[in-house]
Amino acid sequence: MAGLRFRLRQISRRFWFLPAVMTLAALALAQLGTWLSTNPGTNDGAPTWLYGGGVDGSRSILAAVASSSIGVGGTVFSITIAALSYAAGTMGPRLLQNFTEDRGNQVTLGVFISTFAFSLYSLRTVTGGDEGDPFVPHYNVTLALILALCCIAALVFFLGHVTSSINTTRVVNLLAADLRSSLLTATEQTDPEQDVLPPPGAEFWARAETLSAKKGGYLQLVDHEGLVDLAVETGTVIRLLVRPGDYLYPNSPIAEGVPTLPDGIYSRLTVGTSRTREQDVEHAVRLLAEVGTRALSPSTNDPFTAIDVIDRFGDALCTLEDREWPTGVHSSDGEVRLVAATSDFGGLVDTMFDQMRQFGAGAPAVSIRMLEVFAVAARVLDDPGRRAVVTRHATKLRDDALGATRNADDRVAIERRHRAVLEAAG
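The structure corresponding to this sequence follows.
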C-alpha cells in the first residue's frame, strides 16, 4: 500500500498531470455550456453580459482564442525550457526538476492548454448556413473570452515566476528546504525514556536465508510497516542489507530472514531508475552539494554560491542538535521483527563536505567559511561522537587547504579557524 501511495504521489508531481486534469475539466465545462445553450428554458432571463453575437462572430472568437492560446503557450514554454537547460549547466539538473514540479508552472501550462481545448471543443458546436439551423453556444463563447483574459494573467505571472526560479539563491533555498524536511522526517526528538531494542548480533544472522535482487535499480521506498506485518505473520526476523538510495545490482543480496525467508519482501520494496527524496536523506544532501561543487568548477568560478551552500549545510547540522538518528530496529510486542539499514550522522556529513572540501581546497574564502561553520556546529552539537565527526572533517579540510594555499595570511587564517573548531569541540 505504501508503494502504491508513493507511485501516486510521483504521478501527481509529473509536469503533465495537473494540465491534463484541467483539460478534462475544460472539456466537461464546454459540454455543460453547450447543454445550457441548447436546453429550452435555460436561456430565459439570461444575463445581459452573456455573449449575444451571431454564428460568424462566434466562430471568429473561438478560433482566435484557440489559436492564440496554444501558439503563445507553446512558444513561451519552448523558449523557457531552452533557457532553463542552459542554466542547468551551472546549477545542475535539479533546476529542471524544480521547474517541472512547480505547481505555478503546471497551472500556467494548464490554463493555456485547457483554454485551447475548451475553445476547439466549443467551435465544433457552432452551426449555421449550409450546416443547418444556426446555433451559437453563448455560454461557451462568453467563457472562452474569460479564459482568454486568464491566459493573459497567467502569462504575466509565468514570466515573473520563471525569472525568479532561475535565480541561484532561490534554487539553493529550495534544495535547503527539501534537506531540512528530509532530516526532520528521518530523525526524531531525543526521548530519554524511550526503550529501544538492540539489533540481534552477528551469530543470530549466521543461519539466515538471503534474498537477491531481481533487477537493477535504485531503492526508492521501503514499506517498513508492511515488512513488520509480514515478519509477524510468518514468525520471522528480517534484516535489510540495503537502504533507500542504494543501487540494487541484479542477483546481489538485499535482505535476510531468520529462521526462513518469507515471501513478499520484494513486493514491499519500491525500485526505480532514479533516486528520490522520500526516504533518501543523502539524496537531498547530494543535490545541494552538486550546486556547490559546480560553483567551484573552473568554468563557473562562483565561490559565493558555494558559501551559500555551506551555510545551508551548517543550518542542517545545527538542526540535528537534539534529534536522534534512527536505529533501524522495528519491533512488535517487544520482539525485534525488522532491522533496516539506515543512514548515519557520519555518512551525512561525508556527503555534505567531502566533495566541497576537495573542490574548494584551493579557494581560501571557501575553506575559511567551511571551518567557521564547523566551529558553530561543534558548539551546538551535544553528542561527543558527532563533534568528533565535525572535528575530523575540519582537520582534513585544514590539511588540504594548507597544501593548496601559498599566501601566508590565508594560511594563518585557516589555522586560526581550525583551532576555533577544536576549542568549540572541547
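The chain has a mean pLDDT of 86.
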